[in-house]
Structure prediction request, 731 residues.
Amino acid sequence: MFARVKHWGPGLLLLAPTIILVGVFVYWLIIENFRVSLTNQHTAKPSNDYVGFSNYSNLLADSNFQHSLLNLLILTVVFLAGTLIFGFLWAWLLDKPAKGEGIFRAVYLFPMSISFIASGVVWRWLLSSLQTDQPGGERTTGLNRLLDSVGLGFMQNDWWSNPTWGIAAIAVPAIWQLSGYVMALFLAGFRGIPEELREAARIDGCSEWKLYRHVIFPQLSPVMLSAVIIIGHMSLKLFDLIRAIVPDANTYDVQVPATMMWVKYIGSDYADAAAIGMILLVLVAIVVIPYLMYTSRAEKR
Amino acid sequence: MRRRLSLIAAAATLGLTLAGCGGAAETPSNTAAPASEATGKVGVFTWWADGSEKVGLDALVKVFNTDYPGLTFDNLAVAGGAGSQAKSVLAAQLKAGNPPDSFQAHAGAELQDYIDAEQLEDLTSFYTDNNLTDQFPKDLIDRLTVDGKIYSVPSNIHRSNVVWANVEVLKDAGLDPTKPAEDLDAWIADLEKIKASGKTPLAVAGSWTQVQLFENVLLSSLGVDGYNGLWDGATDWKGADVTKAIESYKKVLSYTNTDRDSLSDWAPATQLVQDGAAGYNLMGDWAEAKFAQDGDVAGTDYTYFPMPGTKGVFNFLADSFTLPVGAPNPAGAKAWLTTIGSAEGQAAFNKAKGSIPANTTAKTDDFSEYQKSAIKDFSQDKIVSSLAHGAAVPVAWLNDLSTAVSKFGGDNDVAALQESAATTAEKFAK
Prediction:
């Protein structure tokens, strides 16, 4: 008996603080949050009457919440596509032996070191919706002014002040910030492919395109999957960037579940805020859990 | 820290001595025994962290330090978002049972949330002990009273239905700045003229300033009874007169700057009027402090008038201070509330902040021209509660309505706004 405790005792002792802290501050709080989401506490007045899942069904039937889910979908698709395209392109360019590779790598990676809040303040100004041909157009600033002064005035638009596509404009700074990170992932992937494989393919008479299509890309798919998971779950939880760019939290055009949760919480609608939190958790879990299962199975093999 | 405390104490003592030398030192006669014997720190929570609000708070603290040299004022102000950041911090503290000694809240429906949550102490006896009931206007006391009990002490009164105009822009458009439009339709005609002159007719900023514009268009179009009825159920949100009012709002909104959502807060919108880029800005009268600070002169640089169609109506909001349940230093908090309610405290605070004193006995001879006119209007106008500032409806109701108004800014769908406003009213009016 004692021998067995001696076997797993020290390990458990070492892990105990983590288990307790994570247990209280993550899992217990998730359970507590779930409990609140089942009550009817829609005002500051304390209330513990359970109403089952009616908060969830009301939310899912609410056109504002549906709009925020649609926004989230657009944001995630544009954000993912943008970072993957730019990240891959840059990694591909840097993979060729090029002069000043180190400098370019640093340049592309740097935006990631800035917090969303700080860059958001700058992007608020850059994404100002005023256009030069509108009344008061002489005050135009940011990208619209830039486009106008280089003769691309027709490309001016109202950026995030658009109820349908506005949220895609929020993806622009997010792409700018995280493409470098995806580039680093892909670059590591490229470097992980032994030179011998390329040489062997070339000797076999493989064209450059076919080399990428049949040799390089298949080996990059685990990297690609990691990038999709990391960017995807960041996009689902994106809050600070939107909050920094858009002055008023309660702005319909760019409402996503995370910002809507905040608005509900400020308005003392704790039950709805908790329900939105649970929906977000489930959405993120759908993305992350299959990935965790996949990697743990891969490790076992 | 110790050194800072002793410095503050020294400054407070000095202030007291100086006041004594002037021979004007009035010991606060209306101080209840526990408040005058209070010692230690008084933590006061506000969102007055900068601008004219900070100046006002500093003036108030100066009076407080003179009244109660034994107490130290602990400034717990949280900046940002017209109080929305502060309210979330406060909500968390109250929920955790860790309240400040006193916190700022808008008088009216917003206070209701805290009362329902049983987070506020009843201050009725405080009012009688200090004879405050007679010193505040009855209209205001009525709005602070819930089930016969009063829960907060108002510090200042603001008016939300004021239009600020650039004299130069109006003249260029062929309008007479001294003769504002009488009603909504006449105003829309004026907006059209400014548009023709090439300027932005009406400046507005993000979501809450649009709600403020919306409420005043409703008030102008529906009249006092119709507007009040929206909040107590007497007016049908689905009625044809509300449709007409929302149509007017759509018309008015079409004359505003297109980058309204990008403006960081109300001040940049008011700045457009100051810069001569826009003709009008509808804004609460805290804008007066901004005009004054920037050295603009009323009459020559800018002019102001009640929202067309709301002459004789005072769309009101007020800040007030509370005594939360479980405050660490209740005696100190009562001392703070005494200073807030006092004529001297109100005069010092409101002169700096640009608002008008809630206490009618405060001396206002040296107040600005605008403030004097607002004091006069408040004493004789019909008073209604502002929607955008939490006086008319609880925060959750206001939130839902704000989302609908923000959505309307994008799609201009009159039927959708009316429908969701009606649904929201049904949800909360119960």
Observations:
- Chain B touches chain A through 43 residues (CB under 8 Å).
